[in-house]
Amino acid sequence: MVLAGRSEAFEPLVTPYRGSLLALAFRLTGNREDAKEVAQEALLRAFRHLARYDTSRSFRNWLFQIAANQARDRLQKRRREADMAAAASRELPPGEDPEAGRRAREFRSDLERCLSVLGQREREVFILRDLEELDIKETARTLGCSTISVRVNLSSARRKLRDAVRTICPHLEEGR
């Protein structure tokens, strides 16, 4: 239906992916506002280019690939303009326990510091494979690279993250 040009059929198609798309965008950008814009732009681009969608592929992975490309573009733009602080976007949701909120903010901050040691491709691979739980082939397709590249970057990312946790955030290792 949606491939036949029925725009009203697009909303039900993407609704199941909105949350994971936003989470992916946040993990790739590290900033809530950027994540919202990346997710929104990914949905707009998916709608505009729906005729290019290869039905033999997973729609979720195709949408994630668009989002990953948007996030990459956004990060490059942000680097050119200036580094923006992500801390301002880390507010407590209404009604949340202040102590739990503080711990969650600290964990996100620690995670972001650890992820900062990764190169862009390592970060993308780690997030898609280990946090979004795509398999190796899906990750490769999403990023437009080989499965070997995914495996190499994933191995490197995991090694760097282990070292970062040990040196930057050793308190995270205590919960092992």
Task: Walk me through what this model shows.
The chain is mainly α and 176 residues long. The chain folds into two domains: 1-85, RNA polymerase sigma factor, region 2, helix turn helix motif (Rna Polymerase Sigma Factor, Chain: A), CATH 1.10.1740; 99-170, Arc Repressor Mutant, subunit A (Orthogonal Bundle), CATH 1.10.10. Helix content is 66%, strand content 0%. It is built from eight helices and no strands. It has helices spanning 10-14, 18-29, 32-48, 59-81, 98-115, 120-131, 136-143, 147-167. Helix 2 packs parallel to helix 4 (59-81), helix 6 packs across helix 8 (147-167) and helix 7 packs across helix 8. The termini are far apart. The model is unreliable at 82-92 (pLDDT under 50).
List strands and helices in order, with pairings.
Layout: H1 10-14, H2 18-29, H3 32-48, H4 59-81, H5 98-115, H6 120-131, H7 136-143, H8 147-167
**Helical content (DSSP H or I, runs of 4+):** 55-70%
Helix and strand composition category: mainly alpha
Helix-strand topology string: HHHHHHHH
Distance between the termini: 49 Å
Would you identify the regions where 5 or more consecutive residues have pLDDT less than 50? Answer: 82-92
Mean pLDDT: 80
Q: Which architecture of the largest domain does the CATH hierarchy give at level 2?
A: Orthogonal Bundle
CATH superfamily of the largest domain: RNA polymerase sigma factor, region 2, helix turn helix motif
| Overall number of strands | 0
| CATH-assigned fold name of the largest domain | Rna Polymerase Sigma Factor, Chain: A
Largest sheet: none
Radius of gyration: 17 Å
How many domain modules?
2
Instruction: List the total number of helices.
Output: 8
Tell me the fraction of residues in β-strands, as a range: under 5%
CATH class of the largest domain: Mainly Alpha
Sum up the overall morphology in one term. globular
